[in-house]
Design goal:
globular; 6 strands; alpha+beta; 3-stranded antiparallel beta sheet; Arc Repressor Mutant, subunit A
Length: about 180
């Protein structure tokens, strides 16, 4: 089992990386299956490890939340490498959408937190994503736009691959993916 082979600081690092947003001690402890006290000690060890390592990443505490992020001193490098003007948080949200290919806005907000609403607005404004009302619900389907594929040189997935990636059956050839069967 992976949990038994990794140290607590390594597990916390993986959790912070995968979640992509700051988490509280209680959230980290629940995910890592430890107590908040053990989690705090693990974070202290992880922060000390990053402080003594030549690395581009750091663990940053903001209030009662901890996050894994690039060091502020790398801002110029990041801006020179990014082909677009998006916030780091919006880029992480865009990366989540790119990994999922197509997902419900409600699922995206669950994954990325309530800040995802602002990220979606930012991504829509720059035409990196498309949003279509869900036919049988209140949420929206979020998918990548043609501009995303051109900008990041990523080939679009076929519609049947998108649905399969989200646990859906492929759309019927006689109706559009967003249409309900009659």
């Amino acid at each position: 089992m992976a949990r038994d082979t990794l140290s607590l600081p390594a597990r916390l690092e993986a959790i912070l990386y995968l979640k992509g947003r700051p988490l509280s001690l209680v959230e980290l402890a629940a995910i890592a299956a430890t107590t908040p006290e053990e989690t705090e000690l693990g974070l202290i060890a992880l922060i000390a490890d990053y402080a003594h390592r030549d690395t581009a990443l750091e663990i940053r505490q903001e209030g009662k939340h901890y996050g894994l992020q690039l060091k502020d001193s790398l801002g110029d490098l990041v801006q020179s490498l990014l082909p677009v003007d998006l916030s780091t948080a919006a880029l992480r949200t865009l990366a989540t959408i790119a990994l999922k290919k197509r997902l419900l806005q409600s699922d995206l907000v669950e994954l990325r937190g309530s800040g995802a609403y602002d990220h979606i607005k930012e991504l829509l404004a720059q035409n990196f994503i498309e949003r279509k009302r869900q036919s049988d619900g209140r949420s929206y389907w979020i998918s990548l736009s043609e501009k995303f594929h051109r900008t990041f040189a990523v080939l679009p997935a076929r519609a049947d691959e998108q649905g399969a990636a989200n646990g859906e059956s492929p759309p019927s050839p006689d109706r559009a993916p967003d249409q309900k069967a009659a």
